[in-house]
From TrEMBL:
Superkingdom, taxonomy of origin: Bacteria
Domain Lon N-terminal: 2-253
Protein name (database record): Lon N-terminal domain-containing protein
Gene3D superfamilies: 1.20.58.1480, LON domain-like (2.30.130.40)
Classification via SMART domains: LON (SM00464)
InterPro entries hit by this protein: Lon_prtase_N, Lon_prtase_N_sf, PUA-like_sf
């Protein structure tokens, strides 16, 4: 059996290290927050699992195992603000990735918990030597049998740096292209676009030198489909995640430049409140 984690289904996945504000108003999720607050603050247990809902499917109308994607990410409670109506405003940060093994549906009794819970297995990242060993043929372009392991790691590390710079450059172009679509419209929209562009550049500076953090930033900020984002969340190797993001950003840039349309307002880069 895996660990039991309370679930909070949302329309889009959460990624490690990404801030997620939430407004909690449904009774079952109010109960979830109260249960978490009853735990010791320094015990590491004040977290719940965020899982994305498959597009067009209502969790309540179909089996949860079918309605939810099978890979999610924990949300660690950082700030809890009780509201006069009994709800809560939360600030959480993405923590560890997991895979759903089984979903436990809550009952009416308080002991049964009114919210979904799941048995999960924790997913580890493929980094450093493990990733280098797994990708050495891709990195070197030919079978690497017999090569010095240290050389393979050095080449892999260098290629990861190249990918990091490439994705950072593509993301800057992508945000600039989205911002450009806002210019020529109302003045406030243009000003907001410029502000978001500056914000994206600041975020890139904050994750400079950390390919893993960059990959999660791009996954969360780019206006991708839930399916694309979910595939990035499920990818355990930073190199392969960055390579996928490079392909996705090139695709999105082509659409922006040829069609001249953006799928959602630029202000979504700021991460609006998610309503459960």
């Amino acid at each position: 059996m895996g660990d039991l984690v309370p679930l909070f289904p949302l329309g889009s996945p959460l990624f490690p290290g990404i801030v997620l504000p939430l407004q909690v108003f449904e009774p079952r999720y109010r109960a979830l927050v109260r249960d978490l607050l009853a735990l010791p603050e320094d015990g590491g247990g004040r977290r719940f699992g965020v899982v994305a809902i498959r597009q067009g499917w209502e969790v309540e109308r179909v089996a949860p195992a079918e309605a939810l994607y099978d890979v999610g990410c924990t949300a660690e409670l950082q700030v809890v603000r009780p509201q006069p109506d009994g709800g809560f405003r939360l600030v959480t940060v993405g923590g560890d990735r997991f895979r759903l093994l089984d979903v436990v549906v809550g009952g009416e009794d308080e002991e049964d918990k009114p919210y979904l819970q799941a048995e999960v297995e924790w997913l580890t990242d493929e980094e450093a030597a493990e990733e280098a060993a797994g990708d050495q043929e891709q990195v070197l372009g030919s079978p690497a049998a017999g090569l010095d392991e240290g050389l393979v790691r050095e080449v892999a590390s260098g290629s990861l740096g190249v990918l990091e710079r490439g994705v950072g450059g593509l993301f800057t172009r992508y945000v600039a292209a989205v911002a450009a679509l806002q210019t020529g419209r109302e003045e406030t929209a243009a000003a907001g676009a410029a502000e978001e562009l500056a914000g994206a550049e600041a975020l890139l500076e904050a994750v400079a030198g950390d390919p893993r953090a960059l990959s999660w930033l791009v996954a969360s900020a780019a206006l991708l489909t839930t399916e694309d984002r979910q595939a990035l969340l499920a990818e355990s190797a930073t190199r392969r995640r960055l390579a996928a993001e490079a392909r996705l950003l090139r695709r999105e840039l082509t659409l922006l430049e040829t069609v001249g349309a953006v799928p959602a307002p630029l202000h979504q880069f700021a991460g609006p409140l998610g309503l459960n």
